[in-house]
Amino acid sequence: MEPGTIDNLSILYQSSDFIVVNKHWDLRIDSKMWYETLTLQSQLKHRFPELADPDTYYGFRFCHQLDFSTSGALCVALNKAAAGSAYKCFKERLVTKAYLALVRGHVRQARMTIRYAIGKNTTEGMTHMMCIEGTEGCENPKPCQSELTVLEHGSYSGDPVTKVLLQPLTGRTHQLRVHCSAVGHPVVGDFTYSRGQDSSPYRMMLHAYYLRIPAGAELIEVCAPDPFVSSMDGSWVPQSVTRRLEDAIQELK
């Protein structure tokens, strides 16, 4: 997937009520900064000017969030009723989300449940970060759970990495990035949670792969194409398969 431009928005699903896009990495959903002209909001307005809703601040109702550095499936509601339907699904935890990631090191356990509570980091210079309970400056930690399934072991630019499927069972800010870092396997290219050390990859290797929202009469179910394949990124060299992605997703269903 090439970097985002104003006119290369990728659509995964479209109906009269919803659009699901494949968000580019290093792209904000929206921005109040005048100099940030390329956002998902501006891509949508460029592609679908007739669908922009003047009653909303950003023109479109985003049903959930993805970090600036994260790519993948993101759902947009096209009217107030659809937004309410999606919101209800998220509130009642009926939504299924699964992410693909390349993480540093070879994860030994085929499956892992990560349960570190996550709070806001109040340490000076780190207030843009989250942290796990028990670390210095961690304020108001809340219970969190993520499931990790190992898919493949391999290397990235010669360093050992593991391709994993991650399922957040709660929805805290930066949850998957913090959990992976906490178990000693930070996401490849995560500049923030490597304390500025992991800066050589062209992107952070976290991608919202699978999204399922049973929104009333409409079932939204999409997969955003896997970007972590060696044909798309020659730095990633898989060496052994632990579990097929298709099988892991089938089990989620």
UniProtKB/TrEMBL annotation:
Gene Ontology BP annotations: enzyme-directed rRNA pseudouridine synthesis
Q: Which residues form the Pseudouridine synthase RsuA/RluA-like domain?
A: 18-182
| Top-level taxon of origin | Eukaryota
Tell me what organism the protein belongs to. Answer: Helopsaltes ochotensis
Family from the record: Belongs to the pseudouridine synthase RluA family.
The cross-references to Pfam families, in alphabetical order and at most eight, read: PseudoU_synth_2 (PF00849)
InterPro entries reported in the protein's UniProt record: PsdUridine_synth_cat_dom_sf, PsdUridine_synth_RsuA/RluA, RluA_PseudoU_synthase
- Protein name (record): RUSD1 protein
Gene Ontology MF annotations:
pseudouridine synthase activity; RNA binding
